[in-house]
Predict the 3D structure of the following.
Amino acid sequence: MKYTVFDKTSGKIIRQVMCDESLIKANLENGEDFIESPQGHLDPIESFYFVDPPTKSLVEKRALSLQVEVSGLSCTVSNIPVRAMVLCDFNEPAEINDGVLEVDFEAPGTYTISVIPGLEYMAEDLEVTVG
């Protein structure tokens, strides 16, 4: 049988385990719980789902609805969930607290901006061309 192991508090999916039902509890660390993995779901399941701890049910992550504006060598990405992590080519990771990322690139080109939100959203990579 295949099981999905998750964090009891946040619902973050940690791993999937194949074992007999009698052994699954022995595979749990402190603070973890499990559900039976539904058949037909793609691996890695954590990219598309999280677990609602009180109901022990899989919840599908929502797609982001990012808005991108480019002007010259500048790019503005808005509608980013609060506390999402953002990675841009050649820049340090940044945590977004106001829903907006403004980036000024040094040269024309195509760059990747990765938005890594909380559990309820799917991560997204954007390609932006400036200049």
Summary: The chain has two domains: 2-60, 67-130. The first strand starts at residue 2 and ends at 7. The chain has a mean pLDDT of 92. The radius of gyration is 19 Å.
